[in-house]
Amino acid sequence: MGARRWLATLALLGCSVAFAGSADPVLFSFATVGDSRTDAALASTAQDRRFLQNSKALARIVREIGQQHPAALFFNGDMIMGYTRDAVEIARQYAYWRGMMAGLLETGTYVVPVPGNHEMQFKATDAAGRVSKTALPENAARWRDSMGDLILDSARWQSVTGTTLQAFDVANTPVAGGPDGNLHSQEQLSYSFDVAGSHFVVINTDPVGNDGHAPVHWLEQDLQRARARGIQHIFVFGHKPAYTYHYRAGVEADGLDMDPDHAQAFWQVIERYGASYFCGHQHIYNAQQPAQADGGKAWQIMVGSGGSPFSAKPGDGHGPTDRLYAWALVRIHVSGQVEIEVRGFDEAYGPSRILQTIRY
Question: How far is it, in rounded angstroms, from Cα 190 to Cα 202?
Fold first, then answer.
């Protein structure tokens, strides 16, 4: 396709193209990170002990994301501590996190929230000391109360990003009692939309009645429809990883792979549609191609490194990025090339640097 025809097509899609002197201009860009909540015992200020947020790390990440001017930030869950039945406390934590994001929304970056287990689950300890984490309907309702205005405001998206949302339908979500095993509606918890010829899917990996599971059946149908529309690139965002990152010996499965058959079924869908999966949950940066040994090419990009206490303790990580705060910046070029640039800084808040660049 010639350059003029490309630009005409992009105009019809409502796209703005950033040339920046490049022979292959950027069609659309977004950032992604997750896991900024902290523990009271590890908070460095009275403010963070009150709101259970690593404000210093998150503020810097948000500021540096803003300097790159992506159209959207997908925040992959655990933005609050949650784990409580206190509705006022949960609302307060959401409000503080929303305040941290407000500047982005005023300077050209739309914030897309992704539910995490701390938002969805209640943590309880029984008399024998056994800990359980269970998604509750009231937590899903509180999510909608605090995040629903962002999911998705088409007019505000247009105003903030200068691009047009397409194929968004709030009713396109896993149904209660359906094949994915959810007991309640996943409205505004799992959803999808198109922008600039790419398809974006948010999934809830801790639905009520089916904790630690992704909506595989719904996802398959959604991606099939996207391909039928001629979509080239697909990006999926969830909190829990499909496959746990074993940064040291003895790390137990803590993602969808707690149910190995389910993780495999999920990843087969990701591979079949050539998607990329961005997640968090483990407080660490890691990029892997889980099915590479079998010829798979799909990436799992874990950026659960937004400020929560590092999963890797000093000395037990085997990777140079295991104890860094990090986020990913994704650029989709007119040629079709996708570039994932991961940036980060150390716990001493030294200079930020590029940790890894992935292109496909």
Answer: 5
pTM over 0.90: yes
- Where are the chain's structural domains? 18-359
* Section 58-80 average pLDDT: 98
Q: What is the mean pLDDT of the chain?
A: 93
- What is the layout of strands, in order, in the sheet containing 110-113? 110-113, 72-75, 26-33, 324-333, 338-346, 353-359
Query: What pLDDT was estimated at residue 316?
Result: 82
As assigned by CATH, the class of the 18-359 domain is alpha beta
The predicted pLDDT at position 12 comes to 43
Q: Could you count the other beta carbons within 10 Å of the beta carbon of residue 72?
A: 23
Residue 83 CB-half CA count within 13 A:
16
Residue 329 and residue 33: Cα distance in Å, rounded?
9
pLDDT tens-digit map of 183-237? 999 999 999 999 999 999 999 999 999 999 999 999 999 999 999 999 999 999 9
Q: Which residue has the tokens 């389910």?
A: 262
Collect contacts of 165-169 with beta carbons under 8 A, ≥24 apart.
165/193, 165/194, 165/195, 166/13, 166/14, 166/193, 166/194, 166/195, 167/192, 167/193, 167/194, 167/199, 167/226, 167/229, 168/192, 168/193, 168/194
Residue 167, judged by CB atoms within 10 A of its CB (0-12, 13-18, 19+), counts as middle
